[in-house]
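Changelog-linked ticket: adenosine-5'-diphosphate example.
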Amino acid sequence: MCQRAVYPGSFDPLTYGHLDIIKRAKKIFPELVVAVAQNPIKPTLFSLKERIEMLKKATRNMEGITIESFKGLIVDYCKEKNIKVIIRGLRMISDFEYEFQMALTNRKLSKEGIETVFLMTHESYSYISSKLIKEIASLGGSLSEFVPPFVEKKLKEKLKGCKLQ
Ligand code: ADP
């Protein structure tokens, strides 16, 4: 029986969709590590520190959750931490192809037998992505339905003066 799982991602920024997956994963695994990716070839709007802070703030009242960062392959991180389960969220069928490819690749790369567990998001969040959130923010739209209020504030601060024409 696995006690611990890891939920990796960029979280750039954290959305209600991510939080929904965190809550669902916590119902199955008593301990959940949310691992924020530090990827030198994938530019992010928020720094690693900012992304970690947002997750810490949003999960501060939830038990059994730790927020960490990782660099490199998630399977190497899992090996180092002795974690056997990776959590990923599925929104729509369009996520499936990439996630399927990743899950099979991770299984192949790992000699420890890592499994990926997919959780379906709540239908209200199925269309939310960090990319869409950034686009709405850059156009000055309200984000109250998609991200916690403090994330919306941070996004507005970050994008001040960068509104699209
Ligand atoms: P990535 O890991 O591709 O950089 P994210 O940090 O945005 O992407 O997402 C991490 C994980 O959370 C992925 O499995 C992604 O499918 C999932 N996810 C993102 N947004 C949502 C959402 N609205 N509902 C459910 N899962 C989501």
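Closing comment: Example verified and attached. The longest strand covers residues 31-38. The mean pLDDT is 93.
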